[in-house]
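Chapter summary example.
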Amino acid sequence: MITITKKEEVVLDQVKIFNLEYPDGIPVNVLKKELGFHEYDLVQILEELQDKCLVVFKDNKVSLSGSEKEINTVNSRKDVEELELNLKEKESYNLIKSLVDDKNLISKYILEGHLLYGDLKLTNFRMYHIILSLQNKGLLKPIDKSDGEYYLLVE
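The structure predicted for these 155 residues follows.
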């Protein structure tokens, strides 16, 4: 599921409307005129939609990407970030569940490596934020053992 803001939804809906009329791509000026957005704001929204693989934005022309994805709309960018973080927390938690040993322990460095360089490809900041959040929720507990630092997965 992809989460977008209300403004991104308005732009995406307009792209869907004009898509048949402009098979080679919808000129940004047409969208700007129709929506009444400032060009800078419109370009920024189009780039966000492209990053989410919903549109293709190239040479000041926009077209729909070929992929059909489930879209969730929220009010603001902050809501998008909060929802995406919750999704990343769930994905991280599931990853941790798959990595722990029979005692529900995982080495701190192995966990961090999987979060940073595995499928999730988290940034350092987001990784530590997720680990801290899971600790605050009582799902993950840091443990110091004689052979190193570990996390205990609390189920």
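To summarize the output: DSSP finds six helices and eight strands in the chain.
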